[in-house]
Amino acid sequence: MRIVHFEKGGEHGIAANDGSGWHGLTKRKSGFPGTLPELIANGADLLRAGRDLLLLPTIDLDKVRILPPVPKPPKILCVGLNYDDHLEESGLKKPVYPEIFARFATSLIAHRDPIRLPRESDTLDYEAELAVVIGRGGRRINRDRALDHVAGYSLFNDATIRDFQLRTPQWTMGKNFDGTGAFGPWLVTPDALPPGAHGLRIQGRLNGQVMQDSSIDKLIFSVPALIEMISVAISLEPGDVIITGTPGGVGAARKPPVFMKPGDVFEVEIEGMGVLSNTVQHESPDEASR
């Protein structure tokens, strides 16, 4: 089941698709079950909610604005250096513990929104990634039960301002410029995928050219392992998002480097989950002066 969070005419809406098309409604319509972020926060049974939505009128996603599945997550926990091929191109040793860093909600954008190149840099890089949305919170979660805490999966482009990332040992600045974290287009419920999305193909394409091509089973730390290891220290909450890392092929590791420019289109595709697509544009003068 795919469930999408959208906006139409100033109203939030929700729709579901089990392969038969999108069905749903907006907030002021009778029977509205809540937005997708609200359902996740309240621990709702998303599969049941999705089945109920399938009984409603059709929704044309080309006529609405798609929003991130969770626009303001309590936490966005990202994992660096989690694929062997990305480690190799980075010239680093295999980690024995995941490299965790934070993103903030102010960096998030939706499917079809523009990724924004700030005036301070021209080193805007792409990173195709699997996103895991937590549906049931907890601390010290056992790996064997970790997937019981997952509400669903989505796609992410962890776009990075590389020169800012490499200025310090901590990556916070380079990973958090406004308008650089593309998230969506929808949430895919766990029943529709292999456990932990294991074995699914992941690609990143720049202007149609395949730049990254790998498989989720090549994660050094799997989805259950990440949930277990992160929750040792940090209580996970409904709506938290774990961004699981990017495979090899990033622009900064190429010779010569390849960075995204205004007018470019970057797509993230994960097998069975869909495509997240975003253009690139210069940050507007209004945004740059805020």
Automatic annotation (TrEMBL):
Q: Name one GO molecular function term.
A: 5-oxopent-3-ene-1,2,5-tricarboxylate decarboxylase activity
Pfam families, alphabetically? FAA_hydrolase
Q: Which domain of life is it from?
A: Bacteria
Set out the biological process GO terms recorded for this chain's protein. Answer: carboxylic acid metabolic process
SUPFAM superfamilies listed in its UniProt record: FAH
Keyword list, A-Z = Hydrolase, Metal-binding
The task this protein performs is described as:
Decarboxylates OPET (5-oxo-pent-3-ene-1,2,5-tricarboxylic acid) into HHDD (2-hydroxy-hept-2,4-diene-1,7-dioate) and isomerizes it to OHED (2-oxo-hept-3-ene-1,7-dioate).
Q: What is this protein called?
A: FAA hydrolase family protein
Which organism was this protein described from?
Dyella dinghuensis
